[in-house]
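Continued from yesterday's entry.
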Amino acid sequence: MVPSVIRPAYDRPETAFGGAALRVRRISPADLVHCLKAGVADFLRHPSQLIFLALIYPIVGLFLARLSFGYDVLPLLFPLVAGFALLGPLTAVGLYELSRRREAGLPAGWDHVFALAHAPTILSIAVIGCALVATFLLWLLAALVIYELTLGGYVPASLASFAQEVFGTRAGWALIVFGNGVGLVFAVFAMSLSVVSLPLLVDRDVSTATAVRTSFSAVAANPAVMALWGLIVAALLALGALPFFVGLAVVLPILGHATWHLYRRLVV
């Protein structure tokens, strides 16, 4: 009699270990459209806006509480909003698992997401997560340095005066140009590091080196399409942030699910 195999709660296909990058595919803009549609479908199947509201609004609340004491924190508003793009892949790890299980025809619930804590790749996920947090903190530091170099010690008296200083002066436009240029560098690095590595670690038992190398290889093999994906992400995040950040509670999970399907299109 053949003994039955007891599968753990965290159930996924076995793969080989190693440090070499996995093979990646070239994709087209049509693949991005497919990924977004699949991301919307997964979100409607597993709505998670309340969880993302719980993640977003403590940060927003702290910022607004500090803003009530003065407008000197206004220069941090844009870097903080942009930081959602840098940290988004880390907050979406649980969504990758939901999409993976749905795709595989397995039961998909939040108990399975919590089972990720017992995944053999959890330390690798944590390492990449720490790298993303460090990237976010370095971005905030760089943004403050650029602000000091362009606008000096200017402390806005109001939101209107801050907008006038940024959009109505040469120094303000220098802040916009240099700030967005440096931010683009951080964003490209964060996307290249995480866009494939985190969903890959959720899906397969590979090393940190394999996950990271595969992620950078996928971006390098599809520079134009991945640049378009970055623009789509930035546009959706900006759209979600407009109604007082409420839209991010929908945009972030949709992008998280869509990133899973993007990974599936990219990696052989």
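--- second protein ---
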Amino acid sequence: MKIALITQCGECTAIANWIAENGLSTAELERWILDPLPDVAEQVLDVLVVQWSLTPADILIFPAGPLGDELATRLALRLHGGSLCQVQTLEALEGLVNKSHWGNALKATLHVTARPLCISLTRESELSASGSNLPAMAEYRIVPTARPDWLESAESIECVTAHPLLQAGCVLVVGLGRSDVGADKIAVLGQALGAEVGYSRARVMNGGFDAERVIGISGHLLAPDICIVAGASGAAALMAGVRHSRFVVAINSDAGAPVFSQADVGIVDDWLPVLVALAASAGV
């Protein structure tokens, strides 16, 4: 079985980690390098088809993100194969693919027999990377064609500063509970606790909170040393964003809240006075 890794030029730690974690390092691997990265999928789809005809592979693995999702789907159609996006794990010999559904509330195992199988990977926390390196393999350069006529312009952002949440060792995640507590009060508590503050999507959508601090499947995926989840029920979409935390403290007035099943320590109480007390203790 041959597996082709489609990556951009330069670092590819995420795919290297994924290959190691899924026991594929001993498989017949080759790397197709997108160099430079295309502005749109149309610039590389035909080139990828040609590359596959020259060096056919049973499984093609694309990186996480919108471009990887699009390329995996559209290339599979052109090659009359199978496609799955945002894959978590792969048992290559058996053709078993694991991925989440319904906002990460359900993990499904799918048996895919169509070949070639084109998959893109799910996003993972930047801090959860173990720093694996790709094994030695044959490499082929995929050079994008010219931009299509319908694309008038494209803006390339070369360097994006990492959000403070991604680098924080301690994070306070506040859900919809106690909607009367504003962002300023929460920010003060976070500062006193030495924690970066994030919010559930429900709280942000309710208004008055920074949309760049959404935690969960549609926001930041974090891996802090300590995560305090306050006033959140523990919905799967939110908890997907903190599942790599080393230690989770949950505070909720509902003793039956699902968040407690995913916490190392649970406190059944109104989260505001609990955090005030914790902040006071931190300042002692």
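The first strand starts at residue 2 and ends at 8. The chain has two domains: 2-142, 164-282. Will compare against the first tomorrow.
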